[in-house]
C-alpha cells in the first residue's frame, strides 16, 4: 500500500499523485490518499479526488499496515516502537528517495513530499492521461467549451491572491502583465492572431488591465469548488501561457495538442529557477516574468 500524505492545493497534489503512480507501477501497490484527520472525520475528500482516480481516503488501519504490518500486534508496537528508525524508513520525502524505492520496491510506503518534476509524469504519461480525464463538465461551464476548443485559443493563467499581497510573493514573485503580453506577442509572431482566454483567481483585476487585448475572453469561474474542471478547461486550449503555479503547469502538461506552444515564467521562484532541473519540460519556452525596458508591441500595450 502507498499512502500519499497530500500537501498544498490541487496542482501540488497532482505531482504527489504522479509520484504514487510512478512507484505503484513498480510495486503494484494500492494507493490511498490522506489529507488530515479533520478532513477524514468530516468526510471531506481532497480536491484531487474530483478526478475519477482508482483510490480512496486513507484510514488509520492503513497507516498501521504500512508502518506496523504485524496484524493484531500492530497497535501495541505502534506505541512501543514509535520512534524506531527501521519503521520510519518506509517514509519517502524526496525525488532521490522515490527513485531508490522504485529500483527496489516493496509493497508499503508513505509518500510525504512534493515530488515536482516532469520526468516522473513523463514516465507514466499514458496512465496520467487516463486518470485525469473528465468525460463531462457541469452545465455552468458549457458556454466556454466552444471558446477553449477553438484551434487558436491560448489560455492565460494569472495567479494573484496570496502571490499579490501575501508572504508567498517574497518567495515566488508575481508575474508581470508584460510577461503575458510578451508571450502573447511571441506566439502571434509564430502562428498569427490568437484568441486569449484568461483564467484567474482575480478575474476583475484581469478585466481592468487586459480588456484592450484583441479577441480576449475572461473565464468567470463558478463558485462551486470544482477547480479540477477549470484546470481541464484550461488544458483544452490549443496553447498555454502559465503562471508560476503548479495549477497551470498541469493544465499545460495535460494539453493533448501535439503542436502546443507553452510559455512559462523565468525564474520560477522570486529570484531563482526551480531547484529541480526537470521541473519544466524542455520544449516549454521560458519568458522573463518581470517587467523590463523592452516594450510590448503597440497592439498589446499594457495600460
Automatic annotation (TrEMBL):
Entry keyword Glycosyltransferase: yes
The entry's keywords: Glycosyltransferase, Transferase
Gene3D superfamilies with a match to the protein in the record: 3.40.50.11350
Pfam families associated with the record: Glyco_transf_11
InterPro entries: Glyco_trans_11
GO molecular function, one term: transferase activity
Protein name listed in UniProt: Glycosyl transferase family 11
Species this protein is from: Pseudovibrio ascidiaceicola
